[in-house]
Amino acid sequence: MENPYKRKKEPEVSKQLILEAAAEIGASDWHRVTFQAIADKTGLSKGGIIHHFRNKEDLLKELMNQSLAELTEWIIEEKKSSGNEEGSLAYLRFIIGKSNDLHYRRTMKIVMQVVLINEEYRKTWDEWSNLYIGNGDDTRQGIKHLIMMLVADGLWYSDNLGIYNISDKKKQQVLETLINL
Q1: Is residue 125 domain-shared with residue 156, that is, in the same domain?
Q2: How far apart are alpha carbons 49 and 74 in whole angstroms?
Q3: What span, in angstroms and rounded, lies between the C-alpha atoms of 40 and 130?
Q4: Domain count, the chain
Q5: How far apart are CA 80 and CA 115, in angstroms?
Q6: Considering only CA atoms, which of 40, 23, 20 is closest in space to residue 113?
Q7: How deeply is 110 buried, as exposed, middle or buried, from its count of CB atoms within 10 A (0-12, 13-18, 19+)?
Q8: What is the distance of C-alpha 61 from the center of its chain?
C-alpha cells in the first residue's frame, strides 16, 4: 500500500521553485543565495536542491539561461508590436516599457549581477545582445543604433540600481528624442 503522507516527487515543479527562490533572494544581492537560504524559503531539503543543481554555479547558469530566454521572448514581442523595428529601438522601448514591471526588474537584476561578476556571463550577454539587439557598425545608422543601446543600458542600470529616479515621462521624452535623431 502506498504511503499517503509521502510527498509526491514533481522534479520540474521543485526545480522551478528553487529557481524562483534563488531569483527572489538574489535580486538584491547574488551573494545571499545559498542552498540553505533556498531551503529555508522553499521548504525543500538541501539534498533536494543539490539533486537539481550540483552547486551554485549550476544554479546561476540555469537562472541566466532562463532569464535570457524570457528576455528574448520580450524583445521579440516588442519588435513585432512595434512593426518589426531594429533591435536597438525595440530594446530601448522594452527597457522603458517594462521599467515598472516587478518580474522584469527582478529578472534584469539577476542578469545585471551575473554579467558584472563573471566574464563568462559577460560573453554570453554580448553574444545574446549581438543576436537580438545588434551591435551597430561605423555608419551613421550604426552609431544611432549604438547610442540607443547605450541609453537603454543606462536606463536599465539606473532602474536596477535605484539611482537618478528618472520618471516615466522623462523616459518617454528620451525615447522620442532618440527616435527623432
Answers
A1: yes
A2: 29
A3: 39
A4: 2
A5: 27
A6: 23
A7: buried
A8: 12
Quick check: 88 and 146 in contact, CB under 8 A?
A: yes
| DSSP conformation class of 4 | T
Q: Burial-class residue 82 by CB neighbours within 10 Å (0-12, 13-18, 19+).
A: middle
- 20-29, 30-39, 41-50, 88-97: which has the minimum mean pLDDT? 20-29
68: Cβ contacts below 8 Å, ≥ 6 apart: 111, 124, 128
Locate cell 551573494: which residue? 31
Which residues lie closer than 8 Å to 145 by C-beta, 6 or more apart?
86, 87, 88, 134, 136, 137
Residue 64 Cα distances to 69, 109, 153, angstroms? 8, 11, 18
What do you get for the CA distance between the two ends of the chain, in Å? Answer: 73
CB 85 within 8 A of CB 146: no
Q: What is the pLDDT of residues 153-164, one digit of tens each?
A: 999 889 888 888
Burial 129-154 (b: 16+ CB within 10 A, else e): beebbbebeeeeeeebbbebbebbbe
For residue 24, the domain's CATH number is: 1.10.10
| Look-up of cell digits 535580486 | 27
pLDDT tens digits for range 112-140: 888 888 899 899 999 998 888 877 677 77
CA distance 52 to 102: 26
State the cell numbers at 137: 557598425
- Let me know whether 72 and 138 are in one domain: yes
